[in-house]
Write a structure and sequence with these properties.
7-stranded mixed sheet, Rossmann fold, 2 domains, two-stranded antiparallel sheet, single chain, NAD(P)-bd_dom_sf, DNA-binding transcription factor activity, NAD, 218 residues, Arc Repressor Mutant, subunit A
Length: 218
């Protein structure tokens, strides 16, 4: 399902959360839910939920609420999860291997085809059925294989160069864990920049605020 109107990034970032909560409801055999009930579970206002879903057609019925199974399936279509995506991981260190070992990716249709690294000690390893290949053969591999998504788990010093190589060889989606923001103006490329340290620093701020609000015991 492709939306014909502009959808704000904030709404898009909430969609996977809707999908996850709806999946939890299905697992509990809950067949329908109102926006108010969903609001209590998710910590989002009922008005916000209705506004978000109205971007894609609404899906609710007056006096009934939402059919959980139907909405779950439609949300999966909106997110593109009923397709299969071939994925390679650039960087087979701790993070790259952890991502390759995460079984939920396969359940969502993301198949890890191979990993790439420059470290001779890692080349040839098999990570859950995916071999670690030499970075030297990356270009040839991309010519011979239809890869949808590349995951970058490499130092920022080489991230831009590697990302440009990927884009030049047909990659149109990059999940970037390198600590640098990648942008490709003028190219048909989508990038999701993930900064793990930013998330941890956000948690640090919240912890600081929580402790400052907690009165000290005498």
């Amino acid at each position: 399902m492709k939306s014909e109107k502009y959808i704000s990034p904030a709404v898009i970032r909430r969609l996977p959360r809707y999908y996850r909560y709806l999946g939890d409801l299905l697992a509990k055999d809950i067949t329908r839910i109102s926006s108010g009930e969903l609001s209590k579970r998710m910590g989002i206002t009922a008005s916000q939920i209705r506004q978000d879903l109205n971007n894609f057609g609404g899906f609710g019925q007056q006096g009934y609420g939402y059919n959980v199974e139907y909405l779950y399936k439609e949300m999966g279509k909106i997110l593109g999860l009923y397709k299969s995506y071939s994925v390679i991981i650039i960087g087979a260190g701790n993070l790259g291997q952890a991502l390759a070992n995460y079984t939920n990716f396969e359940k969502r249709g993301f198949r890890i085809e191979a990993l790439f690294d420059v470290n001779p000690q890692l080349i040839g390893l098999n990570i859950r059925g995916s071999e670690v290949l030499d970075m030297a053969i990356l270009e040839g591999y991309l010519r011979d294989h239809a890869i949808d998504i590349a995951v970058l788990t490499i130092p920022k010093t080489s991230a831009v160069e590697v990302a440009n190589l990927l884009v030049d060889n047909g990659i149109s989606a990059i999940w970037n864990f390198a600590s640098v923001d990648l942008k490709f103006p003028g190219h048909s490329v989508v990038v999701e920049n993930v900064h793990l340290s930013d998330s941890l620093m956000t948690l640090s701020y919240q912890l600081k605020e929580l402790r400052s609000e907690t009165p000290l015991e005498e």
